Amino acid sequence: EGSLITLALESSCDETSVAVVRNGREVLSNIISSQVDLHKKFGGVVPEVASRKHIENISCVIDEALEEANITFKDVDMIGVTYGPGLVGALLVGLSTAKALAYSLNVPLVGVNHIEGHIYANFIEHKELKPPFICLIVSGGHTHLVHMKDYGVYEVLGKTRDDAAGEAFDKVARALGLGYPGGPLIDNLSKKGNKEAINFPRTYLEDKSLDFSFSGLKSAVLNYLNNNRQKGIEISVEDVAASFQQAVIDVLVDKTITAAKRCSVKKIVLAGGVAANSGLRELLTARCREEGFELKYPSLRLCTDNAAMIGCAAYYDYIKGYRADMYLNAVPNLKL
Ligand code: KG4
Ligand code: ZN
């Protein structure tokens, strides 16, 4: 009857999420239980605390996802689950639950790469979107520039050599005393600041390289703050936020446009938590218009970690014939 229902689980970091997805792109429910408040007081995600909270949460989140989708376990045709990259203890909670479900319901299990999941968020948002395209994946853990040639077929053109873009946002936010997660806070403050106030370094690396590096920029911001604080000079948090954000965005946008030109691809896709950044969306939109590229990005809720994107990726892996068995293990440093 052409209807395949995926129950998808995501627990790679600090979000316990469960979704019900029909035929890959139709989201019947996408429940996200965030642990952000729990980790806030530590200024970042504490892995052991995250694992324990996932265990507490996951059954309830599954029930909620089924209820909102108005289905029961009997309607589930397959299980999709993130098996890496991420925090090993956190991943194992989702993975063990997924295996138990697949075994007891006697349905196929499909393991999903979390980075791939972020890309697939775009297929949910944009029903007509198809590869090939260039995808910039920017999150708390990853900064990848990828040529997606077909479903499941990727050429990694560049990635970060040190900090991920989101990590840089979070670390700078912490130095500014803003709290966690820092990305959205810096994004908001930037709107009130002058992005040309401070000329922070843009790291392009070797000529033609599509790799990224954000640790130098992060150090430059920390040095700027320390120097001014030592001298008793007043700091404009808004200007620092805006200038830092612009330095990140300039490099991300330049390299993405270069990648699209080099691969002769007309479509560009944004993914990952930092894809929620308003400055990045604005500048990339403007540059794509100038250069004649089509740009797609997911809505804010689908940018950050969620299980719907995992359900979508699992469906396309399933169509390709991929099945996992009960030996599937968590792979904390899984590559795309
Ligand atoms: O994709 P995600 O939810 O988790 C990972 O897989 O890492 O991304 C989280 C990251 C965090 O570093 C957060 O600060 C960043 O995305 N982020 C943002 C914004 N919203 C979330 N960074 C910049 N601007 C935003 N509006
Ligand atoms: Zn993520």
Write structural notes for this entry:
It catalyses: L-threonylcarbamoyladenylate + adenosine(37) in tRNA = N(6)-L-threonylcarbamoyladenosine(37) in tRNA + AMP + H(+). It is found in: Cytoplasm. Pfam families: TsaD (PF00814). This is tRNA N6-adenosine threonylcarbamoyltransferase. Its main location: cytoplasm. The protein is of the alpha/beta class and 336 residues long. The chain folds into two domains: 132 residues, Nucleotidyltransferase, domain 5 (2-Layer Sandwich), CATH 3.30.420; 166 residues, Nucleotidyltransferase, domain 5 (2-Layer Sandwich). It has eleven helices and ten strands. The strands form two sheets. A five-stranded mixed β-sheet has the order 3-2-1-4-5, with helices on both faces. Strands 8-7-6-9-10 form a five-stranded mixed β-sheet, sandwiched between helices. The two termini are 33 Å apart. The mean pLDDT is 96. It binds 5'-O-[(R)-(carboxyoxy)(hydroxy)phosphoryl]adenosine and zinc ion.
- Per DSSP, the total helix count is 11
**Ends apart, CA distance between termini:** 33 Å
Structural class: alpha/beta
Ligand species: 5'-O-[(R)-(carboxyoxy)(hydroxy)phosphoryl]adenosine, zinc ion
Poorly predicted sequence stretches spanning 5 or more consecutive residues: none
Q: Overall mean pLDDT score?
A: 96
| Strand order in the sheet with the most strands | 3-2-1-4-5
Shape: globular
How much strand? 15-25%
Per DSSP E runs of 2 or more residues, the count of β-strands stands at 10
Q: For the record, what is the CATH homologous superfamily label of the largest domain?
A: ATPase, nucleotide binding domain
Tally the structural domains. 2
CATH class of the largest domain: Alpha Beta
Binned, the helix content reads 40-55%
Radius of gyration: 20 Å
